[in-house]
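Attaching the record inline, Q. Sequence:
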Amino acid sequence: MNSELIERYAKPVPRYTSYPTAPHFTPDIDAAAYRSWLEAIEPATPVSLYAHIPFCDRLCWFCGCTTKQVQRYDPVEVYLDSLRAEIAHAGDCVTRQAPVTAMHFGGGSPTMLKAADIRLLGETLRAHFAFAADAEISVEMDPNDMTEDRFDACADIGMTRASLGVQDFDPVVQEAINREQTVEQTRSVVDGVRRRGAGSVNLDILYGLPHQTVESIEKTVRACLDMDPDRIALFGYAHVPWMKKHQTMIDETVLPGLVERFRQQDHAAGLLREAGYVAIGFDHFAKPADSMAKALQGGTLKRNFQGYTTDDAPVLIGLGASAIGQLPQGYVQNSPASGDYQRRIANDGFATVRGVRLSGEDVMRRAVIEKLMCDFAFSRDWALDTFGAPARTIIEEADYLAASDRDGLFSREENVYRVTDTGRPFVRVIAAHFDAYLHKGAARHSAAV
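Structure, as predicted:
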């Protein structure tokens, strides 16, 4: 891969965890609209839940999440009162015949909660929603938070998967991003969740961090492989200081350039494939027996706000400040400021401040983009069978893209449009060609490599 190609295609584009993407949500969708969408959920419709904990006991400078550092636990307790109230309101709107098939606790740091509060949150969710017996319960963990009582509390709420942030184990890199975490500490958490019955462990590695090199990321990958995780996410650090002010603490002069970022990603991905992991999309890897690898093979892999997933529930209910929900009618997002979120929950039971109602064209373009992001391909027959005559617009755009491609990134092979092996690192850029909203508004995005 030559540097000219990398520089040309590593342009800022969305990550496409939704379509339309969040910058195009508007205040036209409010709590009343959201309530009606929840009430319209049909019996037996699978539902997925996400609960957001927007607090950390330390602030990692690389973080792109909606969170804030707290020195006292009091604000967390007040927030949890509101979160439990929202859970109750949302549960009252949703039919009890809709089974919850997946639950994800994210942040921030969900594991900074006291053990009793972790249990109470789990009990509140089960009191107001009907969980399927085999529901997948995922918990994001900061290894620095974990204590024996927190391990036990996570087991008590039915945790089936733990996701641990690693980033990079190099001490110089860790100091530059304010995230100190040893290999031994991380391994102890992996062992701790496995002893308590978690059937799957995911580790997150970042490339493109300050002072990071190909050599440092190789050491991190090999240390992670020694822990035998079921999945590994290999994310590119998104440097967006205009959105996340704490990222201004990172010295931009020691960030690797685009070509170096590509080398880091390419080398790390090669090590993971050598170790037997299956490449999932552009930034995930899984063991061949993992459900995500099987979903890829079976053509059922999905993409949502948690990234690549096996969760195919048509309804995702987001709970907590800044949380985003996805329903057949469209997307909704809660107020991101915890104080405003709490006020809205107290007044109305919901904190929806924006969203978007999906048009037929939105649904079609979302499906095409998801196919490209997950399968790196879609067929003309699939598009026409699924969407009928309107799909001809997509086909014309795909034909033009394939005909005008001079770098071997996107091709048409009879009935199928395919992202080539050369084009896979740039799949976000290719998907962006089908984004009708991309050049509307002033949204800024991170680099595609």
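The mean pLDDT is 95. The longest helix spans residues 74-93.

More tomorrow.
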